[in-house]
Amino acid sequence: MLINSNLLFSFGAETLLIASVEVIFSEGDHPHHYYQIPRGRIKLNHFDENGKEIIQSILMLWLSDCELLLFINEKYPVNAKVLLPCEIIKIKKDNFFRLLSKNTDISLDKFLSERLFQKYMMMQSNISLQPDIRIIGALKYFKSYSNFQEKYSFEVNFTRKKLASMTGIRIETVIRTIKQMEKENIVKLENSTIFY
């Protein structure tokens, strides 16, 4: 959900400047704030029973962070860790709800529908046994949040290792599959940077 920053500030929001590698919240914490990202990048992850990192999502410019949990009485199922120095707008849960009640033009239904659709698309590709389908699903998911929708216009700003963590396939398979996808003109590589 994207909310005008001036509106957030009028209801008591504050700006945080966070260096990379800091944690915003941890798995098991209770949600007490709405977060919006004007600058930087955040990783949502958790670790499986063997200690392997599973990346749920990478949030980029102007996305919000786990706001749906503010509406239910559940703990965060993920960690939020800053990947690049971030500017984050943070507003207390009570103030956020006051903002929503006084600004009925902010459509939670539309936002929720878009977010669920994107998650469904990501989940659908991750059940495939074909690595190219899984990778394309992840690339489509992140490109959908970007202003760059033309072919090869979206620069993939994460490593093959992160792609492997997001898709549940081995890093060697990701590397091999990306090379094959380049031959098939699905992606373009420039100095090892992927463009989709």
Identify the CATH architecture of the largest domain.
Sandwich
- By CATH, the topology of the largest domain is Jelly Rolls
Strand content: 25-35%
**How many separate structural domains?**
2
Report the principal-axis shape: globular
Q: Low-confidence runs (pLDDT<50, min 5 residues)?
A: none
Class inferred from helices and paired strands: alpha+beta
Give the beta-strand count: 8
Determine the oligomeric state from the structure.
single chain
Query: How many angstroms separate the termini?
Result: 24 Å
Any idea of the CATH class of the largest domain?
Answer: Mainly Beta
Mean pLDDT: 86
The main sheet comes to: 5 strands, antiparallel
CATH homologous superfamily descriptor of the largest domain: Jelly Rolls
Element-level helix/strand string: HEEEEEHHHEHHEE
Query: How helical, in percent, are the residues?
Result: 25-40%
Radius of gyration over C-alpha positions, nearest whole angstrom: 18 Å
Q: How many H/I helical runs?
A: 6
Keywords: DNA-binding, Transcription, Transcription regulation
Domain Cyclic nucleotide-binding: 22-106
Protein name: Crp/Fnr family transcriptional regulator
Organism: Chryseobacterium kimseyorum
